[in-house]
Amino acid sequence: MAALPLCLLAPEMRNRRILDANFRQAGAVAVPAIETDTVSALFAHVATHRWSSVIAHAWLHMFGVPEGMRVVRLERPVREPRVGLVLAGTGPEPVMARALLDLARDLDLREVFDRLTQDHLA
């Protein structure tokens, strides 16, 4: 994958740092032809059919797959990044924060996004 003409997020972005660590773990270095700071720009470049990209499957829900392109599932890295929600520990708990916590606790986003990915792979 590192040998493909790639369009990737900019190196200071968290998702790119995770991707670079995964490349290093696989013994590769990605040297993208294009770097951008938005996922929408990645999809715009991929839609030209000149570049490939590596994105989290969660973005397929929003952008889909550009016509003439396909999704290729990659092996999951040995160490996957964790995402958390941090709230202030003082003062009254905001109603919106409580609602978000309640929703997040009951939602299996990995399952939802894995199902969407399967739809794109079929």
Could you explain how this protein is built, in words?
The protein has 122 residues and is mainly α. The protein is built from five helices and two strands; from the N terminus they run βαβαααα. It has one domain (7-121). The protein has helices at 14-25, 39-46, 58-63, 95-106, 109-121; strands spanning 7-9, 34-36. It has a two-stranded parallel ribbon. The protein is globular, with a radius of gyration of 17 Å. The model has no long low-confidence stretch (mean pLDDT 86).
Keywords:
mainly alpha, 5 helices, 122 residues
Query: So what's the overall shape?
Result: globular
Count the E strands.
2
Q: Give the tally of structural domains.
A: 1
Strand order of the largest sheet: 1-2
Compose a concise summary of this entry:
The chain is mainly alpha-helical and 122 residues long. It has helices at residues 14-25, 39-46, 58-63, 95-106, 109-121, and strands at residues 7-9, 34-36.
